[in-house]
Amino acid sequence: MELKKNILINGFVDSFKVLKTRVNTRFIIFILSVLFAFIFLPVMIYLIAVIFILYFYFTKKNKILKEFLYSVILFFSDLFFLFVFFIIYNLFLGNIMNKVISLLTLTGKALQGLTQTDITLNILSNQQQMNSLIVNIGLWIFGLIALSYALYCIFQGLVWFIAHKILKEKTNFKEYIKRFFAVNILWCVSFVIIAYFYVRAVIYTQVLRSPSNIQTVSIFSVILLIILSYFALISYVLIKKYGFVDSIKKSFSLAIKEFATIAPMYVLLVLGFAVIDVLLRLLFMVNVTLMVIIGIILMFPFIAYARLVIISVIKNLTKKNN
């Protein structure tokens, strides 16, 4: 029990020390520059794109620049991922909703017949157009899921890889990214299934105005997402060493066996996010711009810190169990 307690404490302390060494004067100046660029989104996009290009071009030639870019990517990959994701999400969602509205309009017109025969004839006359809309909606939804999966694996795979490197873990980039893509197939499919039942309940309640147990579905969905995240984050650490099947098996095994250590770690990290959230809510009442700036300064470094804590704790628990 004492060993597990030390593993948990050391995970937080060691990760903080690692993170602290990366917050130097140059990096603070860079943060201020990025915050300024955040006001001008095109500039920010260009800046981060240049960072990625520099990273892949110079890492083998300049050790100082390599370490600096590691820090930059560790802190800002999440920000850029969310930025890109929401642009794509809004683009796809807009097209999906337009087609859904068109489908509902056609369906509504078809149901306006005076008799059952009229309704049947209306439906048959619009059947081809309705089928086309349904197929298009399905394709757009599939495209959104596939693109979200790819973006998540690219950005998050990169940042988890760098987190391992910062903790001096020997990790092969190509192998890690390949396994990250593989293991997320399971988590992505699980997420889509959960999302399907939630969206289905919302449609029944909000669109069709039919009785639906939306509250129960919502609570159940949140619980399932928490459980899913619990196992998924553990697997991101284990894929460094194990293949797809073994990492999944060991994720479930370790998560259950070491629940008494891993769960408190998650709780402490969630409390950290909760404190930041409360602070940002207070700042929102003062000034929205200030809230955004402070939110970026606090939230994304804390996400980076949480990632390091998870890697450190899971790595030590794995060693203990071997």
Please provide a written account of the structure.
The protein is mainly α and 322 residues long. The chain has one domain. The chain is 89% helix and 0% strand. It is built from eleven helices and no strands. α1 packs across α11. The longest helix is centred in the first third of the chain and has 48 residues. The mean pLDDT is 76.
Task: Describe the structure concisely.
The protein is mostly helical and 322 residues long. The chain has eleven helices and no strands. The mean pLDDT is 76.
Question: Which terms would index this structure?
Answer:
322 residues, 11 helices, mainly alpha, 89% helix
Query: In percent terms, what proportion of residues is strand?
Result: under 5%
Low-confidence stretches: none
Gap between N and C termini: 17 Å
Structural class: mainly alpha
Helix content estimate: over 70%
Q: Strand tally, please?
A: 0
Let me know the largest β-sheet. none
Rg on CA atoms, Å: 24 Å
Give the H and E element order.
HHHHHHHHHHH
Number of helices: 11
Global mean pLDDT = 76
What is the general shape?
globular
The number of domains: 1
